[in-house]
Each structure stands twice: as structure tokens, then as C-alpha cells.
């Protein structure tokens, strides 16, 4: 298993930045969607959560709420409930492609929205707070980068955000600790990788305009 | 000036992670609001922008648009326009505290929304894209961390997002390259620091709930 120093060595050989482990880590981060059953070490989980908590927030608000799900039966129940609720929805042409895909997969059966990762972190924030989404995204990005540096696989999970207005899902999550005034902003699957590391993917979008 | 290795040494002495430069960088990042007049080196700008472009995006959409403003007269004109437009607005009790503060400061005069940083990066994304804000926030967080690793000061700037619906501001930004179908999601002030580095600030919010 590589650590951040070995990661940096790996990247230096693949066109990474010769001088900067931090930027190399950003290039090395890839979404992982296949995990080992084994749980991630507690010390890695704690390091990842702490990294997330250190993300910036608007006016130093620090109002994210991280709900860390590691209980197998709770995760199984949530997975089945997500499938059930998506399966009741009808496709609307204006829908985002990934929401359509979730509905279609759920109607077909066997939909696994979090890739059966051993850990799922739900990130919520205050409903009436204008920076809820952006603060949560910074926190999630920190967690993804910290996971990368520790050789833990991760993938952003958006399904619980899409289902935030769903009564059954909310009731379930509120029993687990979601506040009544909180909204789900995103989620993160975490686990030991069951796939080979991939090389950095070149960026062709995210265009730049210079006004010098 | 420290680089990422010196930064890591600094953090190790301040309760940082003994083993991981990447997590230390997240702890070391602090908002900087006072900058030197001197421009940042082009190679640092390029490294920061590249780091941003490597942020994850929903479905690998890569639809952020980075508008890099370094032209002094354009920045001065934009600063004055932002002040003018905020000064026309009336305070509403339901408004976010920082928007209220911007309006009050603008009515008073001399409001400098981007701390006269030599570089202001405006981050926009597609208006009809559901992950516009979260993708942009991940990109901004990568840029802030890369800047920290290069000893460049940075601060998230939200004012142009708040004014995204303002006709005068949109006309100005569209002349600079903002697309008609794009919405401003955030911004970043970048410059050489004119303040001493601060120690990491302990996190007391961003609470965690465990379901094990």
C-alpha cells in the first residue's frame, strides 16, 4: 500500500509536479467504485474526517454535520430504501442524467447507490444557510484528497442529496441523527480499493479565460 | 518564503500530522485578506489553476469556467461597479449577514470586495447544471490548497456570486468572457501575503455523528 510519499513518487513518473506533493495528490485522486468488504482503519477514518473539518466555511460558519455510517444493517436498510424511493419516481425529460439513471436502475432492481462501501459519510448543513452546498463541497474535497493521501478509495455520492425532499428518506436519516433543519448536501463512500490505481486523467474542460 | 516542505515542518511543530503533508496543508490554509501589490509569479498562477482544473466534477462534467483577472484598470472598474451596485440595494432583515455588511460598507464608500488582490479568479459554471456550485467549490478548494502549498495567500470571494443576477455586473463580466448561460459560483483573491502566517485554527463546529 502506498502512502503519500510513495504516491508522490508514482506521480513524478507520470508527468506529475516534480516539486509539490499536494498538487500531485489532487492529480492522483480518482473516483473509486469498487471496495473491499474490510473496514478502513479507525485512524485513517479519523484523519479523513479531521481533514474535512478543516475545510474553509463562509464566515467561518463550521455548520456542516458529518454522519458516519459504518453499521452494516443500517447501510443495507438505507440502500434498499433508496432503491424503493427511486423506483417510485417517474422519469422527466428535464431531469439530470444521473438522476434518470438512478430511477431506471432502481426500477430494474439491485441498485447499489453507494457501491457497498464499508463507510458512507453523509454531509449535511443548515437548510437556510446560503453557503450550505459550497461549504459542504469544500469539506468533501478535503476528505477525498486526505483519503487519496492515505490510499483509501473514495467516491462522491449525490443520491441522498437528490432525495433530500423525500419523506421516507428524511425520516430514516433523522433517526440516525440528521437535524430537522438540516439538508443533505452530499456524501462520500470510503473503503479499501478493490481496483488498481488509475493514472491521472487529463483535463480538457474547466476552461480558462485570461484578462491580463 | 516557505515551500510545501517547510510548511510541513512548520505544522509538525504546531500539532500537525507527523506523517502527512497533504493533511497538514489543509490545516495550514488560512484566509488572507492583505496582499502585496506585486503580482504572483506566472508559474505559481499556472500551478494553482491546474490544481483547480483537477478537482472532481459530477459525471466528469468539467464545465467550470475560470476567468483570471489581472488587469489593474479592469479590476479597479469592477471594484467600483460592485460598490455602486451594492450601494443601491436596501437591507432586508432576512439577508445573509455578509451581504448586509457589503451593502452597508458600499453605502459608506470605499468598499474593496476583493481586498485589492493582484489576481482575482472568477469561477463560473453552467446555469442549468445541478452541480454547478459543488463542482466550483471543489475547484476553489483545490486552488486554495495549492496556493497554500506555494506560499501564496488566498481568500474565497463571494460577492460576484451574490450579484450574479445584477444586470450591470453581468454586462461587465460578459464583456470579459462570462458566457450568457453561465452563472458565477464563487471567486478567489490571490496574492503575495502582506500579513504574517497564522497558526491553524482549531475546529469546534462541523460536528460528527457516528453510526457504527
Supply database-style keywords:
homodimer, about 210 residues, alpha+beta, NADH Oxidase, 2 domains, 8 helices, about 40% helix, about 15% strand, globular
Structure description:
The structure is a homodimer of 212-residue chains. Chain A is an alpha+beta fold and 212 residues long. Chain A has two domains: 30 residues, no CATH class; 160 residues, NADH Oxidase, CATH 3.40.109. Chain A has eight helices and five strands; from the N terminus they run αααβααβαβααββ. In chain A, helix 3 runs antiparallel to helix 6. The longest helix of chain A has 18 residues. The radius of gyration of chain A is 18 Å and the shape is globular. The N and C termini of chain A lie far apart (45 Å). At the A-B interface, helix 2, helix 3, strand 1, helix 6 and strand 5 of A face helix 2, helix 3, strand 1, helix 6 and strand 5 of B. Strand 5 of chain A pairs parallel with strand 1 of chain B, so a sheet runs across the interface.
CATH top level of the largest domain in chain A is Alpha Beta
Biggest interface, CB < 8 A: A-B, 77 and 77 residues
Give the amount of beta strand of chain A, in percent. 15-25%
- Overall geometry of chain A: globular
* Low-confidence segments of chain A: none
Helix content of chain A: 40-55%
What spatial order of strands do you see in the largest sheet of chain A?
Answer: 1-2-4-3
CATH fold type of the largest domain in chain A: NADH Oxidase
Instruction: Report the strand count of chain A.
Output: 5
The oligomeric status of these chains comes to: homodimer
Total of helices of chain A: 8
Average pLDDT rating of chain A: 93
Described by strand count, sense and barrel closure, the largest sheet of chain A is: 4 strands, antiparallel
**Structural class of the secondary structure composition of chain A?**
alpha+beta
CATH architecture type of the largest domain in chain A:
3-Layer(aba) Sandwich
Assigned CATH superfamily of the largest domain in chain A: NADH Oxidase
The domain tally of chain A reads 2
CA-atom Rg of chain A in angstroms: 18 Å
User: What's the helix-strand series of chain A?
Assistant: HHHEHHEHEHHEE
Amino acid at each position: 500500500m502506498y502512502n503519500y510519499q510513495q504516491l508522490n513518487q508514482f506521480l513524478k513518473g507520470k508527468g506529475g509536479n516534480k516539486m509539490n506533493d499536494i498538487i500531485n495528490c489532487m492529480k492522483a485522486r480518482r473516483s473509486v467504485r469498487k471496495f473491499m468488504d474490510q473496514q478502513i482503519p479507525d485512524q485513517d477514518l479519523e484523519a479523513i474526517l479531521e481533514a474535512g473539518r478543516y475545510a474553509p466555511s463562509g464566515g467561518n460558519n463550521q455548520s456542516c454535520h458529518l454522519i458516519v455510517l459504518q453499521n452494516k444493517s443500517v447501510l443495507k436498510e438505507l440502500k434498499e430504501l433508496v432503491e424503493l424511493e427511486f423506483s417510485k419516481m417517474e422519469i422527466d425529460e428535464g431531469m439530470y442524467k444521473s438522476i434518470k439513471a438512478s430511477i431506471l436502475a432502481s426500477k430494474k432492481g439491485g441498485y447499489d447507490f453507494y457501491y457497498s462501501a464499508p463507510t458512507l459519510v453523509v454531509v449535511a448543513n443548515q437548510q437556510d444557510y446560503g453557503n450550505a452546498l459550497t461549504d459542504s463541497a469544500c469539506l468533501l474535497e478535503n476528505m477525498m484528497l486526505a483519503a487519496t493521501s492515505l490510499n483509501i478509495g473514495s467516491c462522491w455520492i449525490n443520491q441522498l442529496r437528490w432525495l433530500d425532499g423525500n419523506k421516507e428518506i428524511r425520516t430514516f436519516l433523522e433517526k440516525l441523527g440528521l437535524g430537522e433543519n438540516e439538508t443533505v448536501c452530499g456524501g462520500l463512500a470510503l473503503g479499501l480499493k478493490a481496483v488498481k490505481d488509475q493514472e491521472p486523467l487529463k483535463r480538457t474542460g474547466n476552461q480558462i479565460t485570461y484578462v491580463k
